[in-house]
Amino acid sequence: MWGCQDSGNESEDAGEVTVYTHRHYESDQMLFDTFEEQSGIKVNVVNANADELIQKIKMEGKQSPADVLITVDAGRLHRAKEQDLLQPVSSDKLKSIVPGHLKDKDNYWYGLTKRGRVIVYAKDRVSPEDLSTYEDLASDKWNDKILIRSSGNIYNQSLLASIIAHDGEEAARTWAKGIVDNMARTPKGGDRDQVKAVVAGEGDVAVVNTYYLGKMLNSSNQEEVETAQKVGLFFPNQAGRGTHINVSGAGVAKYAPHKENAIRFIEFLASEEAQKVFAHVNFEYPVNESVEPADQLKEWGDFKEDTLNLSQLGINNKKAVLIFDETGWP
Q1: pLDDT, averaged in runs of 10, over the chain (330 residues)
Q2: CA 76/CA 42 separation, integer angstroms
Q3: Distance from CA of residue 23 to its chain's centroid?
Q4: Do residues 284 and 137 touch, judged by C-beta distance below 8 A?
Q5: Are 151 and 324 spatial neighbours (Cβ–Cβ below 8 Å)?
Q6: 3-class SS at 57?
């Protein structure tokens, strides 16, 4: 069903795979259950945040039971590779499905879902014609109007890392300083909180990930739905490099006891069947181009995405963190 690639001659228990995952979504548990039912391979799940999981694998060393690491943000996947916690996987299926910029060039990790980091704006105070690029958010016209998460947030670190990759450190420093000057309030809360603050009038525009808005618009909480309906979504940099995207992705742990099962599991997550669940339950963009996005995402329209290789987000992470510190981004 999902053919296993060459993974050496190790002897392994064909009955299980242990997944260390940062993701905590209903879509994922549904997929783990489906894989278990269809393959007969038991899925053991260990949940924690990415930094804790990376540290756990490091501490466990050769005794680690981890077969697969799943986390959000390519920067973290690159960090796991750099710390020698993953191993390269040569899978024809994954190579044919996952676009080149969404995977590690040496095949240590593969993107599974995409999300754009976009601008949302108050429909009653901002016209989409007023918006253009990430860089423009640092201009004087947005003074005291920008809502965005803290510098400790990995999504913001990766956005800044992408600006470093495209425009250089000095331009990235100028941008970060401009955003700090334009903040409507000291950063607090998650992406949903930025949307709520726009609607509450605390600022006019916010920078958020697409799937958060998708989940708000389809929430069982009517108040959350009504809040999300009061903002518009804008894809920045369409006339240039395209909108910054990031991924959730997976890699096979360096000392995976069940390597073949790990590869088979990741191949399943990239399959059309699994990608439809990611897309329609969690409102993420599929990496598998054979799968259409959810209707909610289609309503936002097609957009040009930045095709920067996402390894650059990890390579430039430390520089991004330093720039945030230098510019006083809380």
Answers
A1: 40 77 93 96 97 97 98 95 97 97 97 98 98 98 98 97 98 98 98 98 98 96 98 98 98 98 98 95 95 96 97 97 98
A2: 26
A3: 10
A4: no
A5: yes
A6: helix
Query: What is the pTM (predicted TM-score) of this model?
Result: 0.93
Which of 129, 149, 134, 136 is CA-nearest to residue 203? 149
Name residue, tokens 């339950």: 281
Distance CA 293, CA 286 (A): 7
3 state DSSP class of 145: coil
Cβ–Cβ < 8 Å for 20, 57: yes
Letter string b/e over residues 90-101, b meaning 16 or more CB atoms within 10 A of that residue's CB: ebebbeebbeeb
Q: CA angle, corner 185, sides to 170 and 160, nearest 5?
A: 25
Say how far apart CA 88 and CA 12 lie, in whole Å: 18
Q: CA of 111: how far to CAs of 75, 79, 210, 240, 269, in Å?
A: 12, 15, 16, 23, 10
d(Cα 86, Cα 232) in Å, to the nearest integer? 40
First to last CA, the chain: 49
How many whole angstroms separate alpha carbon 151 and alpha carbon 14? 43
Q: Is residue 311 exposed (0-12), middle (13-18) or buried (19+ Cβ within 10 Å)?
A: buried
